[in-house]
Amino acid sequence: MLRLGVLLSGGGTNLQAIIDAIASGFLDAEIVLVVSSRSDAYGLKRAAAAGIPTIALSGEVYADPALADRLIAAELARAGVEYVVMAGYMRRVTEPILTAFPDRVLNIHPALLPSFAGAHGIADAFHAGVKLTGVTVHFADAAYDRGPIIAQRAIPIEEDDTLEALEERVHAVEHLLYPEVLQWLAAGRVSINDQRHVCIGLP
Ligand code: GRF
């Protein structure tokens, strides 16, 4: 069973999707710790409701990002975390976490990376007039929204689309894709080749 640590900053609907996928038996994992960069994140309530231990960090802790990440890495290690799952975490992960969990930090982004990186992936794609956007799950590196891509799902943007409708479809895809990718990891199907490209093995 995969031991997951989840990092978040907000509503935590992706956390909820992972909790639900575990509860339904789809995902062979356990969330052993949730770390929030904000003490008012609703995701903390979702974690508590599921009986998951939580840590909330205050803004001051992040004044020194390396110190914050040393602290987070130590707590994740202490909880026996195998994979670190960023789910709406609005901070960049830095060297202490990346070194403690090499190729074991994941992020989900609501666009087809490397397009529309940043905090407004859905709106940026919508306003750019592209006909196709989507969802990306990738291993994180020290740059924001970068690192080897594990999976992507495309979502068409229709001519009469609204931003709200698109957001809803993107989030619905996220909530399916993240648990699916985590189950690939749980099943040992994910590897990174010499070109640092991700390969998914057969079930
Ligand atoms: C998601 O759209 C995710 O792709 C992005 O932040 C959002 C988090 O939403 N990185 P939630 O907190 O999981 O509801």
Mean of residue pLDDT values:
96
Helix share bin: 25-40%
Total helical segments = 6
Name given to the CATH homologous superfamily: Formyl transferase, N-terminal domain
Percent range for β-strand residues: 15-25%
The domain count comes to: 1
User: Order of strands across the biggest sheet?
Assistant: 3-2-1-4-5-6-7
N-end to C-end Cα span: 16 Å
- Biggest sheet architecture: 7 strands, mixed
CATH architecture: 3-Layer(aba) Sandwich
Spell out which ligands are present.
5-O-phosphono-beta-D-ribofuranosylamine
Describe this structure in words.
Helix content is 35%, strand content 24%. The two termini are 16 Å apart. Strand 8 and strand 9 form a beta hairpin. The longest helix is centred in the C-terminal third of the chain and has 24 residues, at 163-186. It contains six helices and nine strands. The chain has one domain (2-200): Formyl transferase, N-terminal domain (Rossmann fold, 3-Layer(aba) Sandwich), CATH 3.40.50. The chain binds 5-O-phosphono-beta-D-ribofuranosylamine (GRF). 5-O-phosphono-beta-D-ribofuranosylamine is lined by residues 8, 10-14, 43, 87-88, 108-110, 174.
